[in-house]
Write the structure tokens for this entry.
Amino acid sequence: MGITGEGIGVLLKIAFVAVFLVGQFFPGEVSANALFLLILLMVALCIRRVKGIYLMVSSVLVIVGAVLLYHSGMNFDLWRDAVLENAGIVALVMTTPLLAVCLRFYDFEADIRAFASHHVRSSLGFYALLLIVSFVVAMLLNMGAVPLLFFVFESLRKNYPERTVYNALTRGYFINIFWSPNFVSMAVVINYLGVQWSALVGWGLLLTFMGMAISMLLEYGRLRWRGELRPQRLDAAALSEEAGRDFRPGLYWIIGVVIYVMAMILLLEYALGKGISVVVPLVSLLAPLLLAACMRRWTSLRNQFHHYRTVTLRGYNNEVFLFLSAGFLASALRGIDMGGLVAEGLSALGVNSTLPLVVLLILFIGLPPLAGIHPIITISAVASVYASGGLAISQIQLALVMLTGYHIYAATSPFSSGVLLLSHLSHKSTIKLGIGTNGLYTLIVSACFAVIIASI
């Protein structure tokens, strides 16, 4: 890679992750100031590559945060800490793509197709398979699961209703928001509330499996109502394409890698006493190295890291600037005592019990993103109110509320990165793939989750 602006930007991002991780184990003024300087250099170099609405929204957040901090005082530590507020989230976002390296040490895609060819003959069966595979693969690949599975099932999905394919891909992927430590939603919530992932994962998995069950019931009802439970035609050539292949190794591989990564995350969180914004970047770096050493896949590891360095990291500009800007504003808001004002406002609205409060917060977090406002902004505002004592709700309840609101954004907003990606792949509108595909599903899931959260 030549000494270009993009090349220097990539090196700064790698240095940022390294200094962040070192600073978590050796905290002090030197590491904090070094990280602060790296962020300023990284933003200065990458800001011209931040696109459209991301640049506009991020700039507004920085300006508002700067005004608030100015009135709070010109203390350097105050400004530096505001810049560093979301450094952990940015480090997690930058490193989680490396977890995909573990999955790619084996050609599991052909085994999944072979399993589908052997066992799936109905639209509901195909939906269930794609929903589960999307859910499992997205634990590691995150958004990368969508294009991968879209093309893995290219020959088979032609046999089934188009809407069934889109429903399964999006719902299986997005439901990970409630529990997966590799998803930015979980990092955002944990960063602002300070709750441990291990304390939240049990409730998150409960909501996850409930969401998948609701998804199956809704798809069954839709297919039955439209008379599409059995596909109109089955392409025999597509179904027999890999009929002679033993599909079990691929299934075992996916399950094994997921267990390997999640066990490492739990072990390091317990052993180190650190949050997932530290543990997940560490696992993202260590897990592929250890697996490559055991399997002697150094060439594959080197090639995939080269792709990560030259392609993946270059694309992380919009998210970096947005998350840093939101953290800057969230830190500034801590200097304002909003708790009393919000408590009085809720009382005036008649919100005096947990369920109405839960519903109101879910709507506040989840609805503005339909107009393009990223949920990290609304989540940071809610977290600031909670920190000042303005919300009569437990920490776990609020974390689940935030995740539910984030799920509304991810599944329905035309500005959601997952919806935008699927729109690019399928050449369908973001409105159709967002609200059109998941509007009713998200409404039912959010209502059910609100009742459960309020009863915790």
About this structure: DSSP finds 24 helices and no strands in the chain. The radius of gyration is 22 Å. The mean pLDDT is 85.
